[in-house]
């Protein structure tokens, strides 16, 4: 009866100090196949390796696996002149060692440049990155500034003026980060007097502007005895001085008028105007850059029409009531 190994393995990775086990299955043959194992073409050390064979599989145990147990293992089955083989590559990996060296290359401003070399011991697997930490010599506390960093040079930024720093670097592989680190012998001191600020030169801009009315005064009509208000808006720099005039005469501090100017909004309130308050009103704005004026006409109307209309309606209502009463009596 023919036989063959059912599974073949290319690469198996085990962490250092764990139990390593191979389990290869094969189809049963008659007579019973002869099973043998080799490592790198040499017989196994039976003191550290145990092999258990059954009718359908062969299991190889390595207790307390070490890195030297890494290699190519080969199981072979043989019955008379028939033979089949199954190779498997075993890689025992461990934490890497620290970088060989790290040095401070340069210090400028708030920055420090570092450079280091890969570790001599990579843990039997590829180095995947580096972790960089800094410590202020005042406190001695370490803080991580770079993780999973792939280069062998780095610039550390945002250091504090007046402080002195040490740096250390850890190596990292698929197992984890090295237990020890490489520490800089040099100290990076951020000098307080190392920075001189020179303000940029620029040409000053003149924001001066002559007064200009953005909203004009509008002609309007008011009723005798009812307070009215005139409104306009102006801009200018420096802030213009506002004056109100009536018929080309400055109103001044006349208590009948209330003058307000706020954020460029100018208003003139005329309290209970009479027919004599009608006329042409002017708002004048003046500053160092110039002068501007705006005017409107105010008409103050009497209430005679409303008085006569009310009297007429009252008389008509009285006459109507008399006529209606006579009709009812008759």
TrEMBL record:
SUPFAM superfamilies: Fibronectin type III, Immunoglobulin. Pfam families: fn3, I-set. It comes from the Eukaryota. The keyword Manganese does not apply. Residues 211-295 form the Ig-like domain. GO terms for biological process: cell adhesion. Keywords: Cell adhesion, Immunoglobulin domain, Membrane, Muscle protein, Repeat, Thick filament, Transmembrane, Transmembrane helix. The keyword Acetylation does not apply. One of its GO terms (cellular component) is myosin filament. The chain crosses the membrane at residues 305-325. Residues 98-192 form the Fibronectin type-III domain. InterPro entries: FN3_dom, FN3_sf, Ig-like_dom, Ig-like_dom_sf, Ig-like_fold, Ig_I-set, Ig_sub, Ig_sub2. Binds to myosin; probably involved in interaction with thick myofilaments in the A-band. Belongs to the immunoglobulin superfamily. MyBP family. This is Myosin-binding protein H.
């Amino acid at each position: 009866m023919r036989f063959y190994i059912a599974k073949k393995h290319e690469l198996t990775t085990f962490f250092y100090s764990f139990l390593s086990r191979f389990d290869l299955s094969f189809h049963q043959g008659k007579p019973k196949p002869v099973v043998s194992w080799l490592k790198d073409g040499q017989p196994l050390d039976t003191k550290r390796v145990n092999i258990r064979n059954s009718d359908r599989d062969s299991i190889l145990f390595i207790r307390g696996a070490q890195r030297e147990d890494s290699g190519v293992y080969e199981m072979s089955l043989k019955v008379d002149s028939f033979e089949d083989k199954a190779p498997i590559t075993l890689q025992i990996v461990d934490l890497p060692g620290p970088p060989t060296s790290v040095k401070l290359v340069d210090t400028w401003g708030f920055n420090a440049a570092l450079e280091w070399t890969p570790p001599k011991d990579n843990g039997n697997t590829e180095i995947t990155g580096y972790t960089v930490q800094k410590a202020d010599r005042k406190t001695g506390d370490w803080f991580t500034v770079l993780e999973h960093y792939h280069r062998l040079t780095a610039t550390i930024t945002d250091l504090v003026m007046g402080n002195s720093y040490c740096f250390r670097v850890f190596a990292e592989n698929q197992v984890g980060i090295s237990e020890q680190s490489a520490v800089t012998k040099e100290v990076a001191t951020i000098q307080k007097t190392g920075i001189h600020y020179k303000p940029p030169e620029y040409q000053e801009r003149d924001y001066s502007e002559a007064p200009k009315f953005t909203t004009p005064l509008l002609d309007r009509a008011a009723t005798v005895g009812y307070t009215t208000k005139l409104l306009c808006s102006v801009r200018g720099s420096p802030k213009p001085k506002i004056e109100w005039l009536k018929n080309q005469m400055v109103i001044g501090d006349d208590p009948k008028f209330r003058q307000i100017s706020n954020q460029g909004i100018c208003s003139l309130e005329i309290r209970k105007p009479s027919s004599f308050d009608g006329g042409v009103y002017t708002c004048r704005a003046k500053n160092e850059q110039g002068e501007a004026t705006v005017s409107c006409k105010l008409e103050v109307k009497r209430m005679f029409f409303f008085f006569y209309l009310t009297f007429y309606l009252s008389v008509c209502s009285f006459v109507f009531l008399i006529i209606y009463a006579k009709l009812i009596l008759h």
